[in-house]
Amino acid sequence: MRIGLVTFAFVCLSFVQLYAQSPFGRWITVDEVSGEHKAIVEIYQQDGLMFGKIVDILVGDKDILCKECPGDQKNQPLLGMVIIKSMKQQGDTWAGGEILKPENGKMYDGKIWREGDHLMVRGYLGFLYKTQQWLPFKDQ
C-alpha cells in the first residue's frame, strides 16, 4: 500500500514539474512553412519581466541588418537584437509584452508558454494570431 502511494505521489509530482518547466534558456526558432531552423533566441528575465534576444543566426548572413524594424532597431544587426520585450508572468504563461518579427519589422502583442519540451510563441494583431513552436537548444 505504501509503495503504491509513494509511486502515485512521484507520478503526480513529475506531471506537475513537466508542465511547470521554465521558459528561460535558449530556443531554436523554426520556420512554420519550411521547418528550417532559423535562429537561436535566449529567453531571460530582467526586473521580473521576460525578454528574448537573438544569440545566433543559423541560416543566411549572420551580419544581416533589420531593414524593416521600427525606431532605434532600424538597420541594426539581427544578431544580439532583443525581439521579445517586457512580458509579464500570468500563471503558467507570459503576456502583455511585445514580439518583433524581424522579417517584416512589425511588433505584435505576445503570449509565451511551455507545452512539454516546446516553447509556444504567439503574436497577436487584434483578434488574429499566429503561434510558432520553438525547440529547446541543447549544447553539443
TrEMBL record:
Transmembrane parts of this sequence: none
Pfam families xrefs: DUF2147
Ranges of residues in domain DUF2147: 25-134
Keywords, alphabetical: Plasmid
InterPro entries linked: DUF2147
Superkingdom of this protein's organism: Bacteria
Protein name: DUF2147 domain-containing protein
